[in-house]
Amino acid sequence: MLIDGSLAGSVTVSDSVKPSSAAAVKKFRELGLRPILLTGDAEAPARRVAAEVGIAPEDVISGVLPEDKVATVRRLQSEGARVAMVGDGVNDAAALVQADLGLAMGTGTDVAIEAADVTLVRGDLMAAVDAVRLSRRTLRTIKANLFWAFFYNVAAIPVAALGLLNPMLAGAAMAFSSVFVVGNSLRLRGFQSVVKES
Q1: Model-level pTM?
Q2: Kind plus residue range of the DSSP H or E element containing 77
Q3: What is the pLDDT along the chain (198 residues), one digit of tens a residue?
Q4: Who contacts 137 (Cβ-Cβ below 8 Å, separation ≥6)?
Q5: Across the strands, what pairs with 86?
Q6: DSSP code of 188?
Q7: φ, ψ of residue 153 in degrees (nearest 5)
Q8: Which DSSP symbol is given to 7?
Q9: How far is CA 135 from CA 109, 179, 193, in A?
Q10: How many other CB atoms are there within 10 angstroms of residue 82's CB atom?
């Protein structure tokens, strides 16, 4: 604000970084992921935030428009990366659609939520860490269930075809197989959030 041509006062507005963000970036690295800060903000504040949360300077892409975010996601995909994008604003929507996995913050805009594959209920990055961890555990469980189901069938069908398997025994084995798959899947209920673990 100027009074008679002299600076009388100024107002500075900035977003604060959530306390959990640095821990979330560290967890992403532990999961083998490469965090990149892709933002429409100017370079100086973007680099300040990146330094605060532990993102490498070479992984900061600042001052980008929505179409530039999409182009960046496409470039990373063309280099062979599988891209997960976390966003909460209207300007993130197109990139969320383009990414292999779009994660929208539940506290974000309706457009971002609609564009994303997954909506995170909590409004912090730790929820994204949990989503990745739970997805990986679920995939491992599915693969284990498929392995045991196929193993059972590969072992039992030839024996049954030769008439060497008692139907009662075959039925009991099939029931056991189903119980194993359900029991193995129920182990997912023991999943603990990284917030609870830390």
Answers
A1: 0.78
A2: helix 66-78
A3: 677 878 877 776 667 788 899 999 999 999 999 999 999 999 999 999 999 999 999 999 999 999 999 999 999 999 999 999 999 999 999 999 999 999 999 888 999 999 999 999 888 899 999 999 999 999 999 999 988 888 877 777 787 778 787 888 877 877 888 888 899 999 999 998 887 655
A4: 188, 191
A5: 103
A6: G
A7: -70, -40
A8: E
A9: 24, 22, 13
A10: 10
Instruction: Please tell me the distance from the alpha carbon of residue 129 to that of residue 112, in angstroms, as a whole number.
Output: 19
- Name the 3-class secondary structure at 198: coil
Distance (Å) of CA 129 to CA 79, 112, 191: 24, 19, 13
Pull the structure tokens for residue 4. Answer: 């008679």
Amino acid letter for position 141: T
Q: Which amino acid is at 123?
A: G
Give every CB contact of residue 39 below 8 A, 6+ residues apart in sequence: 46, 49, 61, 62, 63, 64
- Sign of the CA dihedral with 72 first, then 54, 193, and 125 last: negative
* Start-end of H helices in the chain: 21-30, 43-53, 66-78, 93-98, 110-115, 125-161, 167-186, 194-197
The answer to whether 21 touches 124, Cβ cutoff 8 Å, is yes
Cα radius of gyration (the chain): 25
Residue appearing with tokens 């604060």: 16
